[in-house]
Amino acid sequence: MFEKRKTLSYKYDLALEMVDYNEERIQYLISHSIIRQNGSFLEIEEQFKDFFEQVLEVNEEINTSSIISNIQNVKENILYYLKENNEIRKYDYLRKVKNALRKIGNITLRNVVDLKRNIDNTFKNEPNYKVKKAKLENLDKNRIDINSFIEQTYQLISEQELSFFKSALDDELSRVITQLKLQLNECRHNLIEIQKQIIEYLNQIKYQSGVIEKLRQLKYLKDQFTIRADTDIDKVILKNDNVIFEANPAYPLKLSLEYLQSNNDAYTSILRIAKRIKSLVKIKLPLAGKISNEYLQPNVEEEIQINLEEVRNSFIASGNNLFDFVLAYNFEKELSFDEKVTVYCQLISQYDSSFALTEKYSSEQEIEYALVYPK
After folding, report:
1. CA–CA separation, 223 and 111 (whole Å)
2. According to the 3-state scheme, what is the secondary structure of the chain?
3. How confident is the model at residue 60, as a pLDDT?
4. 112-131 in b/e burial notation, b at 16+ Cβ within 10 A?
C-alpha cells in the first residue's frame, strides 16, 4: 500500500488476498485508524504515511513550519532556563534546547535535499509548461524561506542568545552547535546551487515555450494555406544550409574477399543477411571433370632415420671421445660434416647422464668442441 500511496489503485480485494482472505484483519486496521476505506479502495492514514516517508527519506513536501516551531521552541526554553533557579529543571530546559537545535539542523538539511529533488522532478516530468513554471517559482519561494530560517538560526546562536550559550555551554552543547553550523553551512552552499538550477530551468522553459508558440503560429498558417503568402519561409529555407536539411550521405564500404573468407564475425554476418534475403535464382554448380589416373598412382618416399640409441650404445662400448667417434661412425646413409656435428649435439643433449663431459676442448674445421667420454 505504501508503494501505491500516490495512486488510488490498492483495491480491497487485493488486500484481502494479502491477508489470506481473513477480513477481520483488515477491519482491525480500519477500526484502529491505521488504514481507511474509500469505496472499493484502501489508503494509509496520513500520520502513518508521513512516518514511513520520513523514516525512508522519500518525503516530497517541503515543510518549513517545523523549522519555525523549533526556532521558537529554542527561544522559549532559553527564556525558561535563564529564569529558573532549580538546577534539575534548568538541566531539563537545556536538554530541550539541545534537542531542538539537533532537529533544526536535520530538518533543514532534509528540506534542502527534498527541494533539490522536487525541482529536478518538476522540470523533467511535468508536461504542462505553465504548471511547470508555477511549480518552480513556488519552489524558489521555499528556497528563499529556508535561506531566511538559516539566517535566523545563525543570529539565534551567535547574537541574540549569546549570553545563554556562554553561561550554559558544556561539551555536549558545544558539539551540537558545531554540528549545527556545519549542517547550515552545507545547506547554504546547496541553496546557491539550487538557485542557479532554478534560474537555468526557468530560462529553458521560457525559451521552449517561445519556440512552441512560434510552432503553433506556423501550424495555424500552414493549416490555412497562407504560410507562403504571409511569411518569408521560402527565402529562409533557401538561405538555410544546415546539415539536417541535406540528404544523408552513403559511404559504401567494400570488404576484401580475404577478410570475408577468414573472419568468423564476417561469416556470421553473411549468414544472418542470407536468411533475410531470399533469392529466387537457383545457382547450378558445375560438375568437376574426371580425375586423371596419374594422380591416383601411389607414390612412396623413403627416408632413412638415424637411430641415436644405437649410436649411443656403440659409443659406450668404444674408448674414443664422442666427436671423433661420430666422425668415424658408419651411418646407414652418408652424412656431411655439419650433419655429424648435429648428431654430436643431439647425443649430448639426450644422453648427458651416460657421458662424462670434460673441461678439455679440441677443434675440427674451425669448430671447437668439448671432449666427451663414456662413463
Report:
1. 49
2. CCCCCCCCCCEHHHHHHHCCCCHHHHHHHHHCCCEEEECCEEEECHHHHHHHHHHHCCCCCCCCHHHHHHHHHHHHHHHHHHHCCCHHHHHHHHHHHHHHHHHHHHHHHHHHHHHHHHHHHHHHHCCCHHHHHHHHHHHHHHHHHHHHHHHHHHHHHHHHCHHHHHHCCCHHHHHHHHHHHHHHHHHHHHHHHHHHHHHHHHHHHHHHHHHHHHHHHHHHHHHCCCHHHHCCHHHHHHHCCCHHHCCCCCCCCCCCHHHHHHCHHHHHHHHHHHHHCCCCCCCCCCCCCCCCHHHHCCCCCCCCCCCHHHHHHHHHHCCCCHHHHHHHCCCCCCCCHHHHHHHHHHHHHHCHHHEEEEEEEEEECCEEEEEEEEC
3. 64
4. bebbbebbeebbeebeeeee
- Mean local confidence (pLDDT), 242-264: 77
Indicate the pTM of the whole model.
0.49
Place of cell 656435428: 341
Tell me the one-letter amino acid at 192.
I
The mean pLDDT of 262-287, rounded to a whole number, is: 78
Please state, in angstroms and rounded to a whole number, the distance separating the CA atoms of residues 351 and 271.
56
* Cell numbers found for residue 198: 532554478
Place of cell 659406450: 316
pLDDT value of residue 57: 66
Among 300-304, 311-315, 339-343, name the one with the lowest average pLDDT.
Answer: 300-304
pLDDT, mean of residues 263-290: 78
65-83 vs 129-155: helix crossing angle, rounded to 10:
10
